[in-house]
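Write out the 3D structure for:
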Amino acid sequence: MTLLPTAVTARPEAPEARGEVSRMVRSRLLDGGRLPLAADIARSSPYGEDLQLALHLCYELHYRGFAGVPDTLEWDPGLLRVRALMEHRFESALRHDCRHRAGVDEALAALLVEPVDGTGVSHFLASSGEPWHLREYVALRSVHQLREADPHLWVIPRLTGRAKAAMVAVEYDEYGCGRPERMHSLLYAELMSDLGLDPSYGRHVDVAGAEVLAASNLMSMFGLHRRLRGALVGHFAVVETTSPPAAARIAAALRRTGAGPAAERYYEEHVEADAVHEQLVRREVVGGLLDDEPDLADDIAFGIAATSFLEDRLGDRVLDAWSRGESALRAPLPRPSGSEP
């Protein structure tokens, strides 16, 4: 399957605001409006729609940007000041909610345990997921998956030795081992097309709730700050350790529902590749970083705990909606072509 270049490269439109803070940040991007004050940000919920959408607007300037928004705003002092206030609110809430976290070894060991009676989203999809559940899940995950490994690359200049070499080795796989058609972000776009979803970058941000945005924003926050390099490695460890079993379940759900070969290919790729990555990440990336900078152990543990916390919130939100037979999206998806009205 060959996607049109514009589906992969075009800049997205800025998503609609979800409150006063995101409205003012969006206005600043599009027409130079005034920015929110510290008091406005202090009143916003750290995990809420308004603050998380505003953070997404700021972070996206470091990725693809938005249609009609000047590139010079990436380093606009006013936007950076506001972003710092929002990051402080977000990070402070996470550190409070993850204050009873385990140490690195215990946290990594827990990630390897697959509960017999698993009840997460991938278990639901494998056992009883219908095509509409899979389409919603894939649309939600597209907020991050269409730029899959990009946030993790920021940590590479901040690592040395074993940790850096192993991180580069894993990321080389994520970018298709030099073959652009095998890049995981492109495989994800092809998965979306197989499911009748628009694969355009940023297309589904408006239908994704705060839980999705928070999980995506977390890796951008970790990646953009050198002081959070240990937390970014912790986040990376969660992703690479938990991916293979979840990917296997989702691949099975896609086969069961007849989603198509491109849809299956993305998750089948992760079953095999991430099983190898998990060993590299644990032994070389995490182990190497701890050998070089043992004082970062608590930061790594925080990254693991914060990632798991936000992923659990997202899973609970999705499953709560689906258990009631309702959509987990903020607005319905267009029907795939050829489906019944």
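The longest helix spans residues 261-292.
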